[in-house]
Amino acid sequence: MTDYRKYHCQECEHIYDEAKGDPDSGIAPGTRWEDIPEDWACPICGAPKSFFKLLA
User: Fold this and answer.
1) Does residue 4 contact residue 37 with C-beta atoms inside 8 Å?
2) Per DSSP, what are the bridge partners of residue 27?
3) Predicted confidence pLDDT, tens digits, the chain (56 residues)
């Protein structure tokens, strides 16, 4: 079984779930965090990828 991780935006608390991806931004379900382009931004508030932290 694959263990997907979740990351939260420190600006707006949006959760990026690797299992769900971000289809509206062209990120397919199952896309690992490290495989998301560096210029991707939070779909809610526009914060850069660097504003996201791994949920423990």
Assistant:
1) no
2) 22
3) 579 999 999 999 999 999 999 999 999 999 999 999 999 999 999 999 999 999 98
